[in-house]
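Support request from a user on the community tier.

User writes: "When I paste my structure tokens into the form, the page sometimes reloads and wipes my input. The last time it worked, I copied everything first. Here is what I submitted, just in case something in the input itself triggers the reload:"
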């Protein structure tokens, strides 16, 4: 494997920088930062198009997007137009993270567990959810106040609001990497391998059946209660996975849709 030129776009992430710098496959590491960081070359840009042109000129092999702001603003689509390997979801998939209503319907279609909806709360707390809304209510009056505030300030999302059971289980983040065909889910301490495998396969089926067209990290926010994994949302920035494998080797495998060839000693 040839040495790789890598660019990290977004907020400074010391963990990610260290992980890349420790890779035996790294040639040069570029970052979009005003700070001087040992071993990194700082790059400035004004538009995504300009950044893409800089990547071309510097022969950057992989761009890792570490900030969801850039994802929401469409960096992935611009990079793809310039044929640059950009690790981030495309904007058309951000609704899974932004819209609780949309995500719930999509996940239920693929038999992925989500916390139950409550029509008439008899115990508290409960969660009040909607598109871009997540509030904890400790009483009926809290629910009324939250709904009224939404109606006054964001009436366009009022119809998406629902009540969800508050789960008391353990909160975890499951880190996955999608290559456009295969989903590689990394081991996670405390989660049964069979449960992790089942969750990963269902999520992979969802992405493939819905024709997801991106390469990037896909982080599931999970609550585990009574041995069941419940999805409570998604995050799309970088989170260091639990693996001893070289991260750049894994990323390069993703660019060639070969994530299915990577096995972990303790993976499902």
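"...and here is what came back when it finally went through:"
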């Amino acid at each position: 494997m040839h040495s790789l030129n890598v660019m990290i776009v977004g907020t400074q992430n010391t963990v990610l920088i260290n992980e890349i710098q420790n890779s035996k496959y790294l040639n040069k590491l570029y970052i979009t930062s005003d700070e001087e960081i040992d071993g990194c070359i700082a790059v400035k840009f004004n538009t995504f198009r300009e950044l893409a042109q800089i990547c071309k000129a510097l022969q950057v092999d992989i761009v890792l997007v570490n900030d969801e702001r850039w994802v929401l603003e469409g960096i992935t689509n611009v990079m793809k137009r310039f044929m640059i390997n950009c690790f981030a979801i495309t904007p058309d998939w951000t609704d899974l993270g932004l819209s609780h209503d949309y995500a719930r319907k999509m996940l239920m279609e693929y038999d992925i567990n989500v916390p139950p909806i409550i029509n008439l709360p008899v115990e508290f707390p409960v969660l009040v959810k909607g598109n871009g809304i997540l509030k904890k209510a400790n009483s009926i009056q809290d629910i009324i106040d939250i709904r009224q505030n939404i109606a006054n300030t964001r009436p366009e999302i009022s119809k998406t609001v629902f009540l969800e059971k508050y789960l008391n289980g353990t909160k975890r983040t499951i880190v996955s990497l999608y290559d456009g065909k295969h989903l590689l889910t990394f081991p996670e301490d405390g989660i049964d391998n069979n449960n992790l495998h089942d969750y990963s396969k269902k999520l992979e089926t969802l992405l493939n059946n819905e024709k997801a067209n991106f390469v990037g990290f896909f982080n599931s926010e999970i609550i585990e209660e009574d041995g069941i994994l419940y999805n409570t949302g998604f995050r799309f920035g970088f989170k260091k996975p639990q693996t001893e494998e070289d991260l750049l080797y894994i990323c390069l495998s993703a660019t060639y849709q070969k994530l299915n060839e990577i096995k972990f000693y303790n993976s499902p």
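Agent notes: The reload is a front-end session timeout and is unrelated to the input. The chain has a mean pLDDT of 93. The chain has nine helices and twelve strands. Escalated to web team.
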